[in-house]
Design goal:
By secondary structure, the protein is of the alpha/beta class. It has a single domain (13-418), classed as Glycosidases (TIM Barrel, Alpha-Beta Barrel). Helices cover 39% and strands 14% of the residues. The strands form three sheets. An eight-stranded parallel barrel has the order 1-2-3-4-5-7-9-10, surrounded by seven helices. A two-stranded parallel sheet has the order 6-8. A two-stranded antiparallel ribbon has the order 11-12. α7 packs parallel to α10 (211-231) and α13 (312-324) packs parallel to α14. The longest helix has 21 residues, at 211-231. The structure holds D-gluconic acid (GCO). Residues 19, 22, 160-161, 242, 280, 332, 370, 377, 386 line the site of D-gluconic acid.
């Protein structure tokens, strides 16, 4: 059969992504763990044991490799590595090094995120990203990790979605998961008490919405990039940004341009000096003259309420690559649904849009699906199923869904089966 589209590059990374706090379980020294446990917490359920991936990571890695994938994005939990300020844990660094080694044993390329939203509780106590020392503290932690990994990992994502605060603020969506109604006590104050800090200073790390916090995140990224490259000149470093497909409805052109200026461009600007830009895309956002339009509800709408719009991915990578001039790594893309056939259909359409972007000349290094396991989805608790595999909440047994097998086939054929594979 004639294949009109060019193949994906030979070195293309096909994998799935997870984040430590969402799968490991018992990440007790982190800011989010503390926030989960205050009265009137805004989290639907505490993370608890999560998927017990802290102990079961070999099973996770085997699932990926057995399916045919060749890459795994996971995160190191800063709060495990530095549970108290200035006390670094060798044992925990060894734990993450074993994860990388297990990836190598199974032929997977590890892609390591240095902070996927969560930070140590002591860092949150002192003001999280708002404290002037934040960039330096993050750099110091990154140096410990990269030195310990001694070249075992080449791909580094410094920070996950540093622009999510900008997105939520600019679009007016910040209320998502906001304070519980009729709260007896302000959760922010209870949080400060729990981490031993002052209200007004102690804060959960993300989303970062203050100008000084955003400036510190940007500086943290620059310093981490410099440090990683100094310690490991062959490393490839970037950060992962939430980039949805930003579209203008009639009359919304100016608003869309304004939104891009707030949500994406300042962050993409920094990526110009990186080795790649991580792009995380799920849906589109359509802007009218004054505000984003309400997303239509259909039977395909995500469990999160997001519009089913898989072709967003192709447009988002074009935007990111066009603005930065550096290659794109799709660090997240996926769908929250109970219908696994729909997951396959969504992913096929998303990857097809990615292939079209590549055919147009966009440099794309890989596709990492969000996510490997049904896991703890932040404020939504365990209600959302983004996974390629289910996890029994009592036994932690993993069961691959057909979508995992399907994505593995796409990987094993480097995209060739996209046109012929079922369903
Ligand atoms: C985020 C994260 C993931 C989420 C995923 C689905 O963007 O919040 O990187 O941790 O789980 O995007 O919401």
């Amino acid at each position: 059969m004639e294949n009109r589209m060019p193949a994906f590059p030979d070195s293309f990374l096909w994998g799935a992504a997870t984040s430590g706090h969402q799968v490991e379980g018992n990440n007790t020294a982190s800011d989010i763990w503390a926030m989960e446990h205050v009265p009137n917490s805004t989290f639907a359920a505490p993370s608890g044991d999560a998927c017990d991936s802290y102990h079961r990571y070999p099973e996770d890695i085997h699932l990926l490799a057995d399916a045919g994938l060749n890459a795994y994005r996971f995160s190191v939990e800063w709060s495990r590595v530095e549970p108290e300020k200035d006390r670094f844990s060798r044992a925990e660094l060894d734990h993450y090094l074993r994860m990388a080694a297990t990836c190598h044993e199974r032929g997977l390329t590890p892609i390591v995120t240095l902070s996927h939203f969560t930070v140590p509780a002591w860092f949150a106590r002192d003001g999280a990203w708002n404290q002037p020392e934040a960039p330096e503290l993050f750099e110091r932690y990154c140096r410990q990790v990269v030195t310990h990994f001694a070249g075992e990992v080449t791909w580094w994502v410094t920070l996950n979605e540093p622009n999510v605060g900008a997105l939520l603020t600019a679009t007016g969506l910040l209320a998502y998961g906001g304070p519980a109604e009729a709260a007896q006590e302000d959760p922010a104050e209870a949080f400060a008490r729990r981490v031993g800090g002052e209200p007004g200073t102690a804060t959960v790390a993300l989303p970062v919405t203050t100008p000084e916090g955003v400036a510190n995140l940007c500086e943290a990224h620059r310093r981490a990039r410099t440090a990683v490259k100094e310690l490991q000149p062959k490393a490839r470093v970037g950060w992962s940004l939430t980039i949805q497909d930003f579209q203008a409805a009639e009359g919304g052109e100016q608003k869309t341009a304004d939104m891009l200026r707030q949500i994406a461009e300042p962050f993409l600007e920094l990526s110009k000096d990186d080795d790649f830009v991580g792009v995380q895309t799920y849906t589109r956002m359509v802007f009218g003259p004054d505000a984003p339009l309400r997303q239509p509800r259909t039977e395909r709408t995500f469990q999160t309420g997001w519009e089913y719009y898989p072709q967003a991915l192709g447009n988002a990578v074009r935007l990111a690559a066009g603005f930065t001039g550096v290659p794109v790594l799709v660090t997240e893309n996926g769908i929250a649904t109970a219908d696994d056939d729909l997951r396959i259909t969504y992913t096929r359409e998303a990857i097809t849009s990615l292939r079209e972007a590549i055919a147009d000349g966009t440099d794309v290094l890989g596709y990492l699906h969000w996510t490997l396991l049904d896991n703890w989805e932040w404020h939504a608790g365990y209600a959302m199923t983004f996974g390629l595999a289910t996890v029994d909440r009592e036994t932690f047994e993993r069961t691959p869904k057909p979508s995992l097998h399907w994505l593995g086939q796409v990987a094993a054929t480097n995209g060739a089966c996209l046109d012929t594979g079922r369903p």
